[in-house]
Amino acid sequence: MITIKNVTKEYAGKTAVKNLDLVVPDGKIFGFLGPNGAGKSTTIKMITGILPIDEGTITVNGYDIASQSIEAKKLFGYVPDSPDIFLRLKGIEYLNFIGDIFDIPKDIRKEKIENLTKSFGIYEALDNHIQTYSHGMRQKIVVSGVLLHDPDVWILDEPLSGLDPKSSYTLKEMMREHAAKGNTVFFSTHVLEVVEQLCDEVAIINKGKLQFRGNMKEMKEQFEADETLEKVFLELTSNE
């Protein structure tokens, strides 16, 4: 569970997130939506401890990300919106680096690396440097690294970007299975069709403020029953 209480973040006098209250429950796939510049990535970077919180608190499974950062970070896996990291490492070096950080035993690590990278179709490329990978392959190696230590909480920022249809399907099935086990899946996306197909609950943020939180049925009850998520989204963010 992720709990965000009265969180505010400002950049150079501009408020990026304002008095945000949000609870991301266990056992559900939770979608986080908003137009560009709405505060999505800023919120995610505060949840993960990349950015400091100006006001308020954020906890991950009860651990405060500011005062108990190590304990909190052990519990989640984070896929950033850009996979261009550790480009000089080989794929296998990157995954072993992640394995070392989370103290994954070598025998268990080897099996997990093989299973994950074969699922995403990059097993044969593990001895190549990440800088030689395509964007999609880089996304796959980052996702594999995130899932390697089997975290309870998944925080995914545009995780399907660059993935081929097969890998996208594989990741969506993994998300469903993870949530079905009572874990947390929190992800942002611009692909509204994916949200309709995949999410149990959604939150829409615009100009740093929460516009809606609930399930698809509750959202459409506030509008016309036959409206698509796209129309609802556009109406909620019409002042953008």
TrEMBL record:
Alphabetical list of Pfam families matching this protein: ABC_tran (PF00005)
Sample GO molecular function, one term: ATP binding
Alphabetized InterPro entries for the sequence: AAA+_ATPase, ABC_transporter-like_ATP-bd, ABC_transporter-like_CS, ABC_Transporter_VariousFunc, P-loop_NTPase
Keyword Metal-binding: no
Segments forming domain ABC transporter: 2-232
Keywords: ATP-binding, Nucleotide-binding, Transport
Gene3D superfamilies tied to this protein: P-loop containing nucleotide triphosphate hydrolases
This protein's name: ABC transporter ATP-binding protein
Source species: Thalassobacillus devorans
